[in-house]
Task: structure prediction
Amino acid sequence: METAPLKIGITCFPLIGGSGILATALGTELAARGHDVHFFSHAKPVRLDLSLPRIHFHQVAVGEATVFPCPDYTLPLAVKMAEVGQSERLDIFHVHYAVPHATAAFLATEMIGAGAPKVVTTLHGTDTTLLGPNPQYRAAIEHALIHSDAVTTVSESLRRQTEETFRLRDVIHVIPNFFTPNPSTRSWEEVRRELGISDREFLVVHMSNLRPTKRIDLLLRVIATASQRERIRLLILAGAPFAPFQPLVNELGLRDNVIVKEDAAVVEDFLPASDAGLYTSQNESFGLSILETLFFGRPVIAFRIGGIPEVVGEAAYLHDFGDISGMAASLDALIDSPEAAKEMGQRGRERAEKLFTAARIVRLYEALYHRVNGR
Ligand code: GMT
Result:
């Protein structure tokens, strides 16, 4: 380990979603580097391995108090963080996604009083872009950010949006996301056979939680617009039920093109069998799924929005938002030219391995923890 060991509490959402996945990967890397890491959430984060040394998990019960007409999470979370923060003498609370985690951290430190852990808040996207302008949340988020010892964003783009949205006094640190691919447990042939995909078919992958901002309608329309749609299969690794999109699949005549997996937590099993990644979000502060696709050397097609250009640089096919025919043309070009596809995929992988590795990024968080801890 390069720095003195710390005791770090990480609060995140447990389900499939970039902020929880990043928080889990960060905690796992920190524990591997000798830090003691305590996770707080209402369920075990999907990718968290509790058998690893120095990893602890504190489950927070939601809505158990029957006196309320609706469930509350913020207060039980704050109490759990305060209890563990005090008993384990944590140095840092690192909360991922401001709502409600940064407010819970503020309450926990107030309850502990002198010697409370320092608070680092990482903004991931919609905590600024959707909830920030919302009058029901704005003041609470701004208060929690002002009382954090450090605030980070996952891209320059999100830093700018955060500065425009809230009146903060201190600088915001940009620490991008990272990804460490696990080796695939199954071969290219095995996965394609399981999915029923022939060698001449072109497998396009899309991974997301299907929220409205992912614009699944545009995703499907790109496939429907491609001249080579007969050869294209679209694999959607979905973090939410796909049923609401089935009528559009039927309307566009894509029933034979679309394969949906709703239970695929292990992206490594599918990405190596794919030929390209397609992402049609209208807002994306970073795009962790895009980074995962780059790490597997697959060419990416996406819209030029939010933090995506910072992630892909020149190593992807970017289009103006809404340019469906442009995206479809890029897809056709990739199918026609496997060499160009391979070359673009390789460039993407090189960029990912240069800029977004755990080795590079975790060190930035460690340095920040030590800086705030020393204050
Ligand atoms: O902000 C959200 O919508 C949730 C969040 C999540 O948990 O998936 O996504 C955000 O955080 C990811 C990890 O940092 C980023 O890769 C995503 O771009 C970002 N989503 C948006 O900005 C819409």
